[in-house]
């Protein structure tokens, strides 16, 4: 994430594209929020006879590329699935490698992220992460909280079901304390208890590596997301692949349960 130092913020609150949006896209119909399930790191490494963890290392580069492009094109939020509540089931060495990788990358990139006005947050059960990583997360979140650029949400030890259960528990606590009437629990009240409370729902979900499932990601928030699945493995995800996803998104007609308008 290196870009020449700037005296004025590079990214605005309602971001104007920093770089021309490619002409094949309609700049007025970009998704406000893109979510991505970064899958296929292990297979990328296996194809090259490398250990799986090398795929994770290369995956970081793909994430940096994607964040840069989304930010440059004025997309408001990028939410990336980095580690699920189920990923603890992986071999211990792979889990420790990932935790160390998150820590190293965050320490290394924080300065540039901040300089570029990225607002970074981590979604998930953070208390189960290694203490060093938790501290870095807390300081990165604090340091970038007022930044005016893209919202970059990294889901780490995140599970959609767990997030829903915790929201339900918080609402139940408020009822038990007499602060909330159960009759006032509506969709808005529920969404306000989720970790994505101040974020619009994702318009587009991208999943790489050709798997047709959502693997416990953003179960509530993806209710009306358009889904783009590509065979590209995450470490190979690049501008071309993102353009294809955005083109696919712009080709969809979003009906939200309504009917298609009659064509003129
Ligand atoms: C995604 O790649 C990264 C994480 C889940 C941390 P994978 O590690 O799942 O790669 P594949 O699916 O085994 O190829
Ligand atoms: C989903 O990928 C989780 C992340 C990308 C962090 P997985 O590789 O863990 O998903 P499954 O096991 O194929 O469903
Ligand atoms: Mg996978």
Q: Can you give a write-up of this model?
A:
This protein is α/β, with parallel strands linked by helices and 264 residues long. The chain has one domain (28-251): 3-Layer(aba) Sandwich (Undecaprenyl pyrophosphate synthetase), CATH 3.40.1180.10. The protein contains seven helices and six strands; from the N terminus they run E-H-H-E-H-E-H-E-H-H-E-E-H. It has helices spanning 41-47, 52-72, 92-115, 131-144, 160-176, 187-191, 239-251, and strands at 33-37, 77-84, 119-123, 151-158, 204-207, 226-229. Strands 3-4-2-1-5-6 form a six-stranded parallel sheet, sandwiched between helices. Helix 4 links the parallel strand 3 (119-123) and strand 4. The radius of gyration is 19 Å and the shape is globular. The chain starts with 32 loop residues before the first strand and ends in a 13-residue tail after the last helix. The structure holds 3-methylbut-3-enyl trihydrogen diphosphate (2 copies) and magnesium ion (MG). One 3-methylbut-3-enyl trihydrogen diphosphate binds next to strand 2.
How do the helices and strands line up, and which of them pair or pack?
Layout: E1 33-37, H1 41-47, H2 52-72, E2 77-84, H3 92-115, E3 119-123, H4 131-144, E4 151-158, H5 160-176, H6 187-191, E5 204-207, E6 226-229, H7 239-251
Parallel strand pairs: 1-2, 1-5, 2-4, 3-4, 5-6
Short description:
It contains 7 helices and 6 strands. The chain is an alpha/beta fold and 264 residues long.
Order of strands across the biggest sheet?
Answer: 3-4-2-1-5-6
Number of domains: 1
Largest sheet: 6 strands, parallel
Q: Which superfamily, in CATH terms, is the homologous superfamily?
A: Decaprenyl diphosphate synthase-like
Report the top-level CATH class.
Answer: Alpha Beta
Number of helices, where a helix is a run of at least 4 consecutive DSSP H or I residues: 7
Q: CATH topology, what is it called?
A: Undecaprenyl pyrophosphate synthetase
CATH architecture: 3-Layer(aba) Sandwich
**Global structural class:** alpha/beta
- Computed over alpha carbons, the radius of gyration is 19 Å
Secondary-structure element series: EHHEHEHEHHEEH
Q: What is the β-strand count?
A: 6
**Unique bound compounds:** 3-methylbut-3-enyl trihydrogen diphosphate, magnesium ion
Helix content: 25-40%
Q: Please state the overall shape, judged from the principal axes of the Cα atoms.
A: globular
Termini distance? 46 Å
Kindly state the mean pLDDT as a whole number? 94
The proportion of strand residues reads 5-15%
Unreliable stretches (pLDDT < 50, length at least 5) are 1-14
